[in-house]
Amino acid sequence: MQAVILHIDTEKGFRGGQQQALYLHHELLRNGCKSYFATPRNSLLLAKLHANNAISYTFRGELDILSGYKLSRQVKKLGVNILHAHSAHALAIAHWIQLFAPHCKIVGARRVDFPIRGKLSRIKYSRADRIVCISHEIEKVMLACGVDTSKLRVIHSGVDLSRFENCLADYSYLPVELRDCTVVGTVAALVGHKDYPTLLEAAEICLRANPKLVFVALGDGPDAKDIHALAANEPLKSRFLFMGYQKNVGSFMKTFRIFTIASKKEGLGTAIIDAMGLGLPIVATNAGGIPELIRHEHSGLLVEKKAPQKLAAAIIELVNNPARAERLGATALEEAPKFSMQKMVDSNAALYSELLNG
């Protein structure tokens, strides 16, 4: 039986999970599969779908049985047999759809390494036909929360390793007096689990040791005001630059000489894969699925979570030892294809076939 997939998302914003779902949908269409995408009318994702089999709906919360019923009518009309829910809220909508279209199989995606909280959430995940965990660390969390091991599949996130090929480094965002500095960059939403306080403390240690550095952060989020306030004084005020959400990420990342991330929770970390694909030396924490991407002292340096002194020491080590930094970056580049977009797409397609055909 051929898979006909309806991807479901509920988020208004556009972050790593939405990018993964978009990659999957577009590549399935390019490979001749029947793939559709349901997303809220007010979402950033809707515009990025470019009307490619896009279905817009009004999301009113997890108890929105009306949207489930309306989408089930579309499902029956289109011959959909797989519902792929790309967030926890989307998984609730998938169950409402299945109530009216019981022939559909449900695939849920779990992208965060937080435990499942609440009885209803446990029911959502336990009643799905399969749960895609983007790292083995998430798989462990799901098992600890009581999800049956037979329902879990680990499929690492993947990125388009060619998407930055034609990007040129653009230093124009840097003040003129900082353009001869070594750029240490991160790409991370301004949210709690990315642990900007630790990164900022590490950056201050580095800047006091070496004033020829500048730190750059790409990303936005609900904690932006509080995080910016932590960098209100020197040396961070003038040498830790928050650039917000950027469409041309590649042009910024090509100015980076070191990539760093200080997460205390991390499902996997597609920004790290992007950095690997650019051959950047990487300093990261050992949070969540990050050690599945980076092997310490082989393709990057890993330090403990919430340890700003150790994070700073690792960054300074690579700044002071460019030959070592270059070796780590070269190895990261060699290993990046393990986490390609095509591998992610092929693995999901195989999962759909397994569900429908055994």
Structure description:
This protein has 358 residues and is an alpha/beta fold. The chain folds into 2 domains: 4-158 and 340-357, Rossmann fold (3-Layer(aba) Sandwich); 171-339, Rossmann fold (3-Layer(aba) Sandwich). The protein is 41% helix and 17% strand. It has 14 helices and 13 strands. It has helices spanning 16-30, 44-48, 65-78, 88-100, 119-126, 136-144, 196-209, 224-230, 236-239, 249-253, 270-277, 308-320, 322-335, 341-357, and strands at 4-8, 34-40, 54-57, 82-85, 105-110, 130-133, 152-154, 182-187, 213-218, 240-244, 258-261, 282-285, 301-303. It has a 7-stranded parallel sheet with strand order 3-2-1-4-5-6-7, with helices on both faces. Helix 3 packs across helix 4 (88-100) and helix 7 crosses helix 12. The longest helix has 17 residues, at 341-357. The N and C termini lie close together (10 Å). 47% of the residues are buried.
Q: Uncertain spans, ≥5 residues at pLDDT below 50? A: none
* CATH class group of the largest domain: Alpha Beta
Q: Count every beta strand, where a strand is a DSSP E run of 2 or more residues.
A: 13
The radius of gyration over CA amounts to 21 Å
Fraction in beta strands: 15-25%
Overall form = elongated
Based on the structure given, which CATH architecture of the largest domain is correct?
3-Layer(aba) Sandwich
Order of helices and strands: EHEHEHEHEHEHEEHEHHEHEHEEHHH
